[in-house]
Sequence to fold (320 residues):
Amino acid sequence: MGDHLEEKVSIVIPVYNEVESIPHLYAALKDVMEGLEREYELIFVDDGSKDGSFKVLSDIQAQDKNVIVIGFRRNFGQTAAMAAGFDHAEGDIIITMDADLQNDPGDIPKLLEVSKEYDVVSGWRKDRKDKFFSRRLPSMAANWLISKVTGVHLHDYGCTLKAYRREVIKNVQLYGEMHRFIPAIANWVGASTTEVVITHHPRRYGTSKYGISRTIRVVLDLITVKFLQSFSTRPIHAFGPAGLLLGGIGILIALLLSFEKIIMGYDIGGRPLLLLAVLLIILGVQLVIMGLLGEMLARVYHESQDKPIYFIREVLKDEE
Fold:
């Protein structure tokens, strides 16, 4: 990996209506990174904020050549904001963190030190300063489920404070709520992953952007992640067994009814079993064909066609 002391660091910070937090976050990041005495860049991605966040970021960028500001035309979500940050990052190590001051910039040196040995370093908010029933309990359940489904066991998938080697993150395609699954996706291609305990602060300004709707989207994306992990190169194995089972049962019932009709002369026209047989055969065919086509088309749509998941209004950076 070369001389770690020479590696440039890119810090990607998605921003959505955090006008009060931005000056404090910038000052803390500046203090930490200047103390490390290494080349760095701060990439703030304004995700369509309506509270003046972009103006504050613009003023900061005008005075600091290490700051890059990306402004979206509207709110595209945290995953899109991270994707834009990754696309513009030039660092050998890319760190992501929230803009709400709950992540501590003081933990960045710890992540950088561990990243000398690992491709992905994930933060673990062991002493999390959020409400238990509304935030921590659902998060614990989600972390357990994601770990079980993906096979990559982390205590805190939802923690934004993470460090990635450039060669790993540049090959990850993001959409939906996929940013939280990056450690699992990276692990599938052989990247080494670990986690470190970090400091977590209570929110000082603004309100949380998380809700039940995001939890539902995360669960749906987890299903997609599992499918891509296990069946992306052999998708017929995902839908084939269930399709063959249902279709096979339907065919057996149809054969039994045919025997009764042809050999024994029974009337089968009004029997529920006949409808069941037809239904099972149709379901079997649909599982094998429609499910396979739908999932593969979705994969091609998102990854092969390179359809953008965000649209930038403006990028502010030092041209030198």
Q: What stands out?
A: Strands lie at 9-15, 40-46, 67-72, 93-96, 120-124, 162-165, 193-197, 312-316. The chain has a mean pLDDT of 86.
